[in-house]
Amino acid sequence: MAGNFSFDQLKQAVSNGEIDTVLACIVDMQGRLAGKRFLAQYFVDSAHDETHGCNYLLAADIDMEPVPGYKAASWSKGYGDFVMKPDLSTLRRIPWLEKTALVICDVLDHHDHEDLAHSPRAILKKQVQRLKERGYIGYFASELEFYLFSETYDSARKKYWQGLDTASPYIGDYQIGITTKEEGVMRRLRNEMETAGIPIENSKGEWGPGQEEINVRYAEALEMADRHVILKNGAKEIAHSEGKAISFMAKYNYGLAGNSSHIHNSLWSADGKTPLFFDKNAEWTLSGLGQQWAAGQLKYAKEFTWFLAPYINSYKRFQAGTFAPTKIMWSEDNRTAGFRLCGEGTKGIRMECRIGGADLNPYLAFAALIAAGLAGIDEKLELQKPFVGDAYQASQLPEIPKTLRDAAESLESSAMLKQAFGEEVIEHYVHTARWEQFEYDRRITDWELHRGFERY
């Protein structure tokens, strides 16, 4: 599990001069790594026990603007500290940075050293504990899509993010010849992630020019979330070092495919040896437990959509005929579905949630899927029959929320998530959603200027 580097190995590497920097990182609300670069000797001497950070880091927007109105942290409370507690099991070498190791930290309350309830990693840990109490392990895998550009971030900024050169000029979905031209970044990404203890199964071209998908080996939920955030951060750093840029925006261009993060999930026995979703005698070979789990995710999908689509831009991705879902239903091996059954008839049988974009925070997304699945089990929900056909054209099916505003309202009204996460946690993230909406509502977009500067 977790990193590929023990604390004893780190001490030896520091002593040998092989490691001189340790990144101690928390994960913020946006799913980004935030933290400190330690002189490695100081980290092994004392900072491995704990360090501290400003609590505004979990009460700020994507621009690092301190957001008013949070109960957990504010100017009136003085923006004090929280504890960053290194989880040494996540320690790993980072081969794309010179002589560098990285560790992920839990965020603890400064006074009682308990997990800070609204910390993304704490939210997922709480749901993982609920699984453990029932004798389950949740295995997850999140596919990540992104666009690779023959631009630097600086050159893209100077172009105002318009007219950018993608790494390939046309769609290369599964095409080996075109993706060979992108191997400078992609080969490094596969191999160096593997060296960092993040096993990569494969990469492939996706349904957009210069668009890539990378698949990480499934793992226990917390470990998979850790892999996800390190992969996203590392992909940008590797691309930058190659004079390229990567975007994980859900929809960077109206006319091109969006970036998804499909989430595969299933339950296994506590020892990790027995798949609890596989029953060769059951309908669809999906066990009764698996059917209840899936039924819970379907029932509560509107309520947890924000955890899969947290920004204004996220909802631009949900367009018919783009391989992004628009309807809440499940199907057998059908890519127009919001939820797809994969691995039917095998031990690898699992549900794939196709709603999430590459801009999601994996800790929050995984936690929401676990909470909904457990609700389905507790309520003994019956799984509806699978949909057959083109879900985009099925007007009778329930729809994924169309806007951030709709998703925030559904989140705020969710009794299930308030019980699973805690009311104050849900209130914290509803406030996050509403701030994002507020920031957008008061801005003037390029589309408005183009449409109305002369004609209004």
TrEMBL record:
Question: Out of the domains of life, which is the source?
Answer: Bacteria
Start and end residues of each GS beta-grasp domain: 17-113
Cofactors per UniProt? Mg(2+)
Query: What range(s) does the GS catalytic domain occupy?
Result: 120-456
Spell out the SUPFAM superfamilies in the cross-references: Glutamine synthetase, N-terminal domain, Glutamine synthetase/guanido kinase
Q: Which GO terms describe its molecular function?
A: ligase activity
A Pfam family reported for this protein in Swiss-Prot or TrEMBL: Gln-synt_C
User: InterPro entries from the xrefs?
Assistant: Gln_synt_N (IPR008147), Gln_synt_N_sf (IPR036651), Gln_synth/guanido_kin_cat_dom (IPR014746), Gln_synth_cat_dom (IPR008146)
Q: Which UniProt keywords apply?
A: ATP-binding, Ligase, Nitrogen fixation, Nucleotide-binding
Enzyme Commission (EC) number: 6.3.1.-
Q: Which PANTHER family match?
A: GAMMA-GLUTAMYLPUTRESCINE SYNTHETASE, TYPE-1 GLUTAMINE SYNTHETASE 2
Function summary: Catalyzes the ATP-dependent biosynthesis of glutamine from glutamate and ammonia.
Query: Family assignment?
Result: Belongs to the glutamine synthetase family.
Any idea what this protein is called? Glutamine synthetase family protein
State the organism of origin: Mesorhizobium captivum
